Amino acid sequence: MEFKNEVIALLAEICQDDVVKENPDIDLFTSGLLDSFGTVELLVQAEERFNILIPITEFDRESWNTPNNIANLLADRR
Amino acid sequence: MRILNTIRELAQIQPETLAYISPSSEISYSELWRQSEQVADFLLNQDLQKQSPILVYGHMEASMLVSFIGSVKSGHPYIPVDTSIPSERVINIINSARLELVINCSGHEMDIDNSSISVVTLEDILLGQPLEIQVDPKNWVESQDNFYIIYTSGSTGNPKGVQISAANLESFVDWMIADFPINGPFRFLNQAPYSFDLSVMDLYPALVSGGTLFAITKEMIARPKLLFEALYVSNTQIWTSTPSFVQMCLMDPSFNEELLPNLSVFLFCGEILPVGICRQLFERFPKAKIFNTYGPTEATVAVTSIEVTVEMLNSYPYLPIGKPKEDTQILFLDENGNEVSTGENGEMVIVGPSVSKGYFGQQELTERAFSQYNEHLAYRTGDAGYQNQEGLIFYKGRIDFQIKLHGYRMELEEIEFHIAKSKFVKAAAVIPVFQNEKIDYLEAVIIPDNHDFEKEYQLTGAIKKELGEFLPAYMIPRKFSYHKELPITANGKLDRKTIKEMMRT
What we know:
The complex is a heterodimer. By secondary structure, chain A is an all-alpha fold. Helix content of chain A is 55%, strand content 0%. In chain A, helix 1 packs antiparallel against helix 3. Chain B folds into three domains: 2-315, Rossmann fold (3-Layer(aba) Sandwich), CATH 3.40.50.12780; 323-398, Luciferase, domain 3 (Roll), CATH 2.30.38; 402-504, ANL, C-terminal domain (GMP Synthetase, Chain A, domain 3), CATH 3.30.300. Chain B is globular, with a radius of gyration of 23 Å. The N and C termini of chain B lie far apart (57 Å). Helices cover 31% and strands 26% of the residues of chain B.
């Protein structure tokens, strides 16, 4: 649970919007909260903070779409 | 028009060679020539005003290329508009430029409600035209005639159209072919959408050297897996992109010589090129050369260049933008319009044959930025810079409220104009938030008007939705903050400088 909160806090920082905490099932791409540059930042931070390396080719907007899904996918790779 | 003549010759010498490859379609030199003749003949029979611009709408389709070439062969400049531009903005361009005809290459209906303009698709045009038709070259755009008009962000809230003539484009293309090792025929990467003039850096140099363009689409950028699959088969030799785009690619360890074994040249333009990116590129592509270039849309894509070397990375914390092309001079002026001495900062003024004649239908805006200097036109860039003893130029940021975010150029005042229009907003300022001297994102600082939203994020969502109708996604601020009051200047405008300092603390 703690890890999940950390990921969501990171997303709130990247998206600069607390909506990701209020609604962790929001689609970050269709809502315009995350774009390709935000994605890059997310992957950089995932490596720096959690030491999880995700090649950008493994990223796609269909499965990495909500704060909850991102937290789960990152948790799987720890 | 030498560019068109060269493409015509290539269509005869190498008819089957592909000129353009995109995921949806590809086209050979002979087909590009033949179909663009049909487009030109169609346009000549439409009873259009002389030299009236043709808006070409789409995203990286081969039919866009056919439409561009067809337009200029009939004496009409084209206005390239990418599908990422929202429809309100497209309508704004149509009305302000008094357009008569749109060629829709997108494959989707366009959401424009305007009875005075006809919208046709390339399929419509080709169906109604005889297959083999030859348009007299005396119809082609020549010398000072407009070749294309690219719309860029304007501080008044409306985009402004930069007119690039046949002569401007020829000066640019001649320089590219002479000063860069790209005279192949080579395979060129085409990453930038056509509404962004970085695309011109690969498009015409590729076409006049008999090369092939390989298009990267927004679908690939949204799904990097597709992007890398495309890069793998692209056989790219000449890479043109913004530094931000290559930075995204560098996020994947497989972005290296094995993925693109024949890559020989990286061309960068559109924003500051960080030393760190070059260092990584030299490691991953030891055989490739890297060029940094600089220039505003108003001077046709780019006017300075330098080949980046490993020694340079060790001696400069920020890379130079290089030296002007041979036919161009850059002046460095102080506030009073006098030249500063070597090594001192000044506003860069570009003088030469690639400088645009100005903004389409905007006399006042044109006079503010363009003037005659000796026998050439001069453009005040609003960019600060200096030249060192060796003649190398260094970029030192903007002197006004224009910014670059991920390579996209925009006026903060235009974004503010659209936010302030919202019924939920009393007043707004847009502030760039920096990280390591680079803009990380934009923050909208807002005094809200009355609203019924419970939470701030709901208000933000509503304002962002309104903005999306007028502004492309890259111009919409990432962060929104709300305040009861904000500092204002003596003339009643929000005081951006004080707000910025306020936010830092």
